[in-house]
Write a structure and sequence with these properties.
The protein has 516 residues and is of the alpha/beta class. The protein is built from 15 helices and 11 strands. The chain has 3 domains: 28-54 and 56-93, dopa decarboxylase, N-terminal domain (Up-down Bundle), CATH 1.20.1340; 126-373, Aspartate Aminotransferase, domain 2, CATH 3.40.640; 388-515, Aspartate Aminotransferase, domain 1. The strands form 2 sheets. It has a 7-stranded mixed sheet, sandwiched between helices. The chain binds pyridoxal-5'-phosphate. Residues 105, 164-166, 208, 210, 261, 263-265, 290, 292-293, 319, 331 line the site of pyridoxal-5'-phosphate.
Length: 516
């Protein structure tokens, strides 16, 4: 029997925190007591995810006004803190775990993932070195090896977990910059370098803003991001890519990387990676694939094609926290040239030198942060708890639900689908039937944009579902993305019905006389 620490009996008057030695943690009896309440709360939350509105129904400043401006002078009982969690924090939360959450990319805090997070916090290791967390280091290799195999990447890809896809792409592009012969940015920097032309990387106009942000951080600048044209299905045009590279070389610029996307943020389009890989190889450019969302689908044999050509990439990011049911944050960065990647940012001061260097990896070498959370634990736990079959079944269901949504949109005379459905995300807009033939006339187009923005706001105000928006060729689109484990067909049907209902209401109230 394991003995638990208890508070001194005399120091636990009702309703006040036990008087503990000023240097001690709380007694573990409190962990168990409050922990039971927390687990009960989580269970009820997951069992009845619809009891809260999906979108926080508050105004900015609500929580700041509700809470004291200063920390308490003395400790408070956990029960009182948990009361306030329910009273103030929960209403100020937009519930990504709500089955009606279909904005951005739907995600799930799954039960094995939640337990993994709890244990990670309990262990509280900093996995910067193998020595400081052998399990954190080696489990990351194991779990990322499993994931690599699940999505069909070859063993040549070494993986490392980062917090987000933004960091993964930043790290990959830092490696790409380091791979340019003679550049040696690591040592010489970029400033005052008449010996090199401005660096340029290529990404489609639909690529995620994290690519531009990486360019900002890496000293490439937004002018160093060449936006390659897309086709009518929002995929990168390889001919335009090749022409841009040739033109940039002729102007004395230094192309160094291409970012292709499998599952773009707006429409989830898939860039033609095989053709892009040909060009990248010919031009000796680093190819990074952003499969942050779409990569998960490759776990399904029938969707494996989405990563066609990605075995030729230099690096690839897939986010288990997007569509593999791992609680945020967990981003898997795979790289075929790990020496270049670690060489780009690794720096080992004396106090971090260890005898194991050379025999085991030190995670601090796999990106610029030193400290690392033990993120592999939740990934390992989810992959084990669901297994390949379980993950496939869940992703497959999301793909099916997206087809249901697409069917509903296609059938409706007052809705218009604006992009092909590649995964579990659909883009559409409200377009009253009588405006269909004039939808591309400028005043009508402008009105439709206003109508869709207002309809979307009205849908989200209901608190039943949450959808987001994007812009597609000057048209405002409503985005519905399924990725939550608790989303059922009825939620998808309700979301489409609400879009129609709110669209009709706004149209009736707001349509300018000239367009009637
Ligand atoms: N890449 C794509 C395609 C995305 O859709 C997103 C965000 O949704 C990102 C990258 C950035 O993801 P993160 O929040 O993990 O940085």
């Amino acid at each position: 029997m394991i003995e638990r620490s208890t508070p001194p009996a005399a120091s636990t008057p009702r309703g006040t925190a036990p008087a503990l030695p000023a240097t001690a943690d709380l007694p573990t009896t409190e962990l168990v007591q409050a922990g039971e309440r927390v687990l009960e709360w989580i269970a009820a939350y997951l069992d009845h995810p619809e009891r809260y509105p999906v979108l926080a129904q508050i105004e900015p400043g609500f929580l700041k006004q509700a809470l004291p401006a200063s920390a308490p002078e003395t400790g408070e009982p956990l029960d009182r803190i948990l009361d306030d969690f329910e009273r103030w924090i929960v209403p100020a939360t937009t519930h990504w775990n709500h089955p009606g959450f279909m904005g951005y990319f739907g995600i799930s805090g799954s039960i094995p993932g939640i337990l993994g997070e709890l244990l990670t916090a309990a262990l509280n290791v900093n996995a910067m070195l193998w020595r400081t967390s052998p399990a954190g280091t080696e489990l990351e290799e194991v779990a990322l090896g499993w994931l690599r195999e699940l999505i069909g990447l070859p063993p040549a890809f070494a993986g490392a977990i980062q917090d987000t896809a933004s960091t993964s792409t930043l790290t990959a592009l830092a490696a790409a910059r380091e791979a340019v012969p003679g550049l040696d940015v690591r040592v010489k920097g970029l400033a005052g370098r008449p010996d090199i032309g401005p660096l340029v990387l290529y990404a489609s106009a639909e690529a995620h803003s994290s690519v531009d942000r990486a360019a900002i951080v890496l000293g490439i600048g937004t002018e160093g991001v060449s936006k390659v044209a897309t086709d009518d299905a929002f995929r990168m045009n390889p001919d335009d890519l090749a022409q841009r590279i040739a033109a940039d070389r002729a102007r004395g610029r230094t192309p160094f990387a291409v970012v292709a996307t499998v599952g773009t943020t707006s429409t989830t389009s898939i860039d033609p990676v095989p053709a892009i890989a040909d060009i990248s190889a010919r031009e000796q450019l680093w190819l990074h694939v952003d499969a942050a969302y779409g990569g998960a689908a490759a776990i399904l044999p029938e969707m494996r094609h989405v990563l066609a050509g990605c075995d030729r990439a230099d690096s690839l990011v897939v986010n288990p926290h997007k569509w593999i049911f791992i609680p945020i944050d967990c981003s898997a960065l795979y790289c075929r040239r790990p020496d270049v990647l670690t060489g780009a940012t690794s720096l080992v001061p004396e106090y971090l030198r260890t005898a194991e260097a050379g025999q085991a990896r030190n995670l601090m070498d796999w990106g610029h942060p030193l400290g690392r959370r033990f993120r592999a634990l939740k990934l390992w736990m989810v992959l084990r708890a669901y297994g390949r079959q379980g993950i496939m079944a869940r992703i497959r269901e999301h793909l099916r639900l997206a087809q249901v949504a697409a069917g509903l949109v296609d059938e409706a005379t007052d809705l218009e689908r604006l992009a092909p459905v590649e995964f579990s995300t659909i883009c559409f807009r409200v377009r009253p039937a009588d405006l269909a033939s004039r939808a591309e006339e400028e005043p009508v187009r402008n009105y439709l944009n206003t109508l869709n923005q207002a309809a979307l706001e009205a849908v989200n105000r209901t608190g039943e579902v949450f959808l987001s928006h994007t812009g597609l060729g000057g048209r405002t689109a409503i985005r519905l993305s399924i990725g939550n484990l608790r989303t059922e067909e009825r939620h998808v049907r309700r979301a489409i019905a609400l879009a129609r209902e709110m669209g009709a209401r706004v149209d009736q109230a707001e349509r300018p006389a000239a367009l009637r």
